[in-house]
């Protein structure tokens, strides 16, 4: 997803596109991978002194609810990133830097065959580890 798509999605769901929300979305547009609420607050603080965790979390959850952001949990903490806008796929996620690599395979193809008679309503498949850059550090 790109910044202008995210702003459009916000508008199409009837939400205001304030400068603060645009700056939050810009953070994710520039981010390469998953980021935490704390990362976002560090980014926002110079412009919006005293920005609260409540404001940040409220907007993060709004963005997730309308499909602008997707989430995962790393080390017991929620991480956020722009939603992918291409076809069905899964991710490798670096546990250090949060960067992702799309995986074009889906294990559900095999799993569906072994679950004959069951109705699958959804799934999420992620692989965690260290990217080549973080392995070198």
TrEMBL record:
Keywords, sorted A to Z? Cytoplasm, DNA-binding, Iron, Metal-binding, Repressor, Transcription, Transcription regulation, Zinc
Annotated compartments:
Cytoplasm
Q: Where does Zn(2+) bind?
A: 94, 97, 131, 134
In terms of SUPFAM superfamilies, this protein maps to: Winged helix' DNA-binding domain (SSF46785)
Query: Which GO terms of the molecular function aspect are on file?
Result: DNA-binding transcription factor activity; transcription cis-regulatory region binding; zinc ion binding
Alphabetical GO biological process terms: negative regulation of DNA-templated transcription; regulation of secondary metabolite biosynthetic process
Cofactor(s) recorded in Swiss-Prot or TrEMBL: Zn(2+); Mn(2+); Fe(2+)
Q: Which InterPro entries match?
A: FUR, Fur_C, WH-like_DNA-bd_sf, WH_DNA-bd_sf
Q: Which GO cellular component does the record give, naming just one?
A: cytoplasm
Query: So where does Fe cation get bound?
Result: 88, 123
Query: What does the entry comment about cofactor binding?
Result: Binds 1 zinc ion per subunit. Binds 1 Mn(2+) or Fe(2+) ion per subunit.
What start and end residues bound the annotated signal peptide? none
The lineage's top-level taxon is Bacteria
| Entry-linked Pfam families | FUR
The question of whether Heme is a record keyword is answered with: no
Question: Per the similarity annotation, which family is this?
Answer: Belongs to the Fur family.
Protein name from the UniProt record: Transcriptional repressor
Taxonomic source organism: Lentibacillus cibarius
């Amino acid at each position: 997803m790109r910044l202008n798509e995210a702003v459009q999605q916000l508008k199409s769901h009837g939400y205001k596109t304030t400068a603060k929300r645009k700056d939050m979305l810009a953070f994710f547009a520039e981010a390469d991978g998953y980021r935490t609420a704390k990362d976002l607050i560090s980014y926002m603080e110079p412009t919006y002194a005293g920005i609260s965790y409540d404001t940040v979390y409220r907007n993060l959850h709004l963005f997730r609810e309308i499909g602008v952001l997707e989430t995962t949990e790393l080390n017991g903490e929620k991480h956020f990133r722009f939603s992918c806008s291409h076809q069905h796929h899964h991710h490798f996620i670096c546990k250090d830097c949060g960067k992702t690599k799309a995986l074009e395979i889906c294990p559900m193809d095999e799993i569906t065959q072994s679950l004959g008679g069951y109705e699958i309503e959804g799934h999420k498949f992620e692989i965690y580890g260290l990217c080549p850059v973080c392995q070198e550090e």
